[in-house]
């Protein structure tokens, strides 16, 4: 059951099962199945129908929505997306997250912070989750291009959506959903004023994309470029903790 409180004392049963399919994707999967059945049953064109049936399975798999065990430490910032860490660099947060938007709530402070970029292929889970719990202060959609999400300039030129979360202690953290070559729709699940728990689902991007996370000032990442991470489970950073980490490529 989604949201059920679990412990580590042996509750539950072991065994693989197909993850739930998010409602946003069920209609696309059913449409693909219906089209494949037309070719298989009505037209008897198996050469087209069977590949379409395989495509239907792929569509359902794309919108899979597995449960995640979210770290509950107060200082932990968790990954908002499944995928590969492709960039870690110091930069200014997007202007849309800094300027006064008339809401009465401040944006992110100006100054250099660390940005972690997570690239999602079409094979990754595309449900995005909030890195911290708190109140949604901004959801800013910006139309743009559809260049490869792996490019650095995709952060400023591609279609994207900024989400700003404010914790109960006043700390603010922003992250950005970025469309890519194949992705053509960013779907939000939240709006300003919503209260979200850490690791809660906040949106998805259809068919390949990227998510950028802007760490608070004075916080260094605990992940490395080339690392594969899991939304809602991998700890990207601990708030206020500094220090270089090193890994071994294997």
Automatic annotation (TrEMBL):
Its cofactor is pyruvate. The record marks 208-209 as: Cleavage (non-hydrolytic). The chain crosses the membrane at residues 30-63. It is found in: Cell membrane. GO terms for cellular component: plasma membrane. Is synthesized initially as an inactive proenzyme. Formation of the active enzyme involves a self-maturation process in which the active site pyruvoyl group is generated from an internal serine residue via an autocatalytic post-translational modification. Two non-identical subunits are generated from the proenzyme in this reaction, and the pyruvate is formed at the N-terminus of the alpha chain, which is derived from the carboxyl end of the proenzyme. It is an enzyme of class 4 (lyase). Keywords: Cell membrane, Decarboxylase, Lipid biosynthesis, Lipid metabolism, Lyase, Membrane, Phospholipid biosynthesis, Phospholipid metabolism, Pyruvate, Transmembrane, Transmembrane helix, Zymogen. The keyword Cytoplasm does not apply. Its EC number is 4.1.1.65. It catalyses: a 1,2-diacyl-sn-glycero-3-phospho-L-serine + H(+) = a 1,2-diacyl-sn-glycero-3-phosphoethanolamine + CO2. Pathway: Phospholipid metabolism; phosphatidylethanolamine biosynthesis; phosphatidylethanolamine from CDP-diacylglycerol: step 2/2. GO terms for molecular function: phosphatidylserine decarboxylase activity. It is a peripheral membrane protein. Pfam families: PS_Dcarbxylase. The keyword Manganese does not apply. InterPro entries: PS_Dcarbxylase (IPR003817), PSD-A (IPR033175). GO terms for biological process: phosphatidylethanolamine biosynthetic process. The active site is at residue 209. It comes from the Bacteria. NCBIfam families: PRK05305.1-2, PRK05305.1-3, PRK05305.2-5. HAMAP family: PS_decarb_PSD_A. Belongs to the phosphatidylserine decarboxylase family. PSD-A subfamily. Catalyzes the formation of phosphatidylethanolamine (PtdEtn) from phosphatidylserine (PtdSer). Heterodimer of a large membrane-associated beta subunit and a small pyruvoyl-containing alpha subunit. This is Phosphatidylserine decarboxylase proenzyme. The gene is psd.
């Amino acid at each position: 059951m989604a949201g059920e409180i679990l412990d580590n004392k042996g509750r539950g049963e072991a065994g693989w099962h197909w993850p739930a399919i998010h409602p946003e994707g069920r209609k696309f999967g059913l449409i693909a199945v219906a089209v494949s059945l037309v070719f298989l049953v009505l037209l008897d064109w198996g050469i087209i129908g069977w590949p379409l049936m395989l495509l239907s399975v792929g569509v359902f798999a794309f919108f899979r929505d597995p449960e995640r065990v979210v770290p509950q430490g107060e200082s932990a910032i968790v990954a908002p997306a499944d995928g590969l860490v492709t960039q870690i660099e110091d930069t200014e947060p997007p202007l849309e997250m800094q300027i006064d938007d008339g809401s009465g709530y401040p944006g992110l402070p100006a100054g250099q912070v660390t940005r972690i970029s997570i690239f999602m292929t079409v094979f990754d889970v595309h449900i995005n989750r909030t890195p911290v719990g708190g109140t949604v202060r901004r959801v800013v959609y910006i139309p743009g291009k559809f260049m490869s999400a792996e490019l650095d300039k995709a952060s400023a030129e591609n279609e994207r959506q900024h989400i700003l979360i404010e914790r109960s202690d006043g700390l603010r953290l922003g992250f950005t959903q970025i469309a890519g070559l194949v992705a053509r729709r960013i779907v939000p699940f939240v709006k300003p004023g919503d209260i979200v728990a850490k690791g809660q689902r906040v949106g998805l991007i259809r068919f390949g994309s990227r998510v950028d996370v802007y760490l608070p000032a004075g916080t260094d990442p605990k992940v490395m470029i080339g690392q594969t991470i899991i939304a809602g489970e991998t700890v990207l950073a601990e708030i206020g903790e500094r220090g270089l980490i090193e890994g071994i490529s294997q």
